[in-house]
Design a protein that fits this description.
- By secondary structure, the protein is of the alpha+beta class.
- The protein contains five helices and seven strands; from the N terminus they run E-H-H-H-E-E-E-H-E-H-E-E.
- Strands 1-2-3-4-5-7-6 form a seven-stranded mixed sheet, sandwiched between helices.
- The longest helix has 15 residues.
- 34% of the residues are buried.
Length: 162
């Protein structure tokens, strides 16, 4: 993680985080998902979700580059749910995902959480596994898109903190 630091989200990060999320979905996800799946997935992303989570008290961790620009982020909900973990494609391979998961675990332990859990994408699954998350099962579901449904999948994973 040389050249990066993990810090708390600030509202000024929102635009950069929205852009990096959509770039990650639209570019990186194509390595494991079809163009139709990627289009449907990116269409359901809303930057408002970040502000709603912050208002609820979600822990939003940002991996910022040397110019303090968001390069990756994670969202940890109060019940231990790791809701989001995204890294801009230009910053993959630097350990940001693992660093964010480690910091999220510290935050979860600080509030007495007994487990962390997530729904990891095909590409995020190995990062969660390296952080000690166990695979529970594959989740096959559909995303409503343009009057129809697009089939997609992810993986239910968890890490016990006992």
């Amino acid at each position: 993680m040389a050249g990066y630091m993990i810090r708390a989200f600030v509202p000024a990060d929102a635009e950069a985080i929205a852009a990096l999320t959509l770039t990650a979905i639209r570019q990186t996800a194509l390595q494991a998902y079809s163009p139709e799946q990627v289009t449907a997935w990116s269409a359901r992303y809303s930057p408002a979700r970040l502000f709603e989570g912050a208002a609820r008290g979600d822990v939003i961790l940002v991996a910022a580059d040397e110019d303090d620009r968001p390069a990756a982020y994670a969202v940890l909900e109060a019940d231990g749910h790791l809701d989001m973990l995204f890294c801009h494609p230009d910053h993959t391979g630097h350990g940001l995902g693992l660093g964010l998961l480690n910091e999220a675990e510290v935050a979860a332990r600080a509030v007495g959480a007994e487990r962390l859990y997530t729904e990891a994408s095909e590409l995020a699954r190995p990062v969660f596994a390296r952080a000690g998350y166990a695979l529970l099962h594959r989740r096959d579901f559909t995303i409503p898109y343009e009057g129809g449904e697009v089939a997609i999948h992810n993986y239910a994973m968890e890490k016990r903190l006992g």
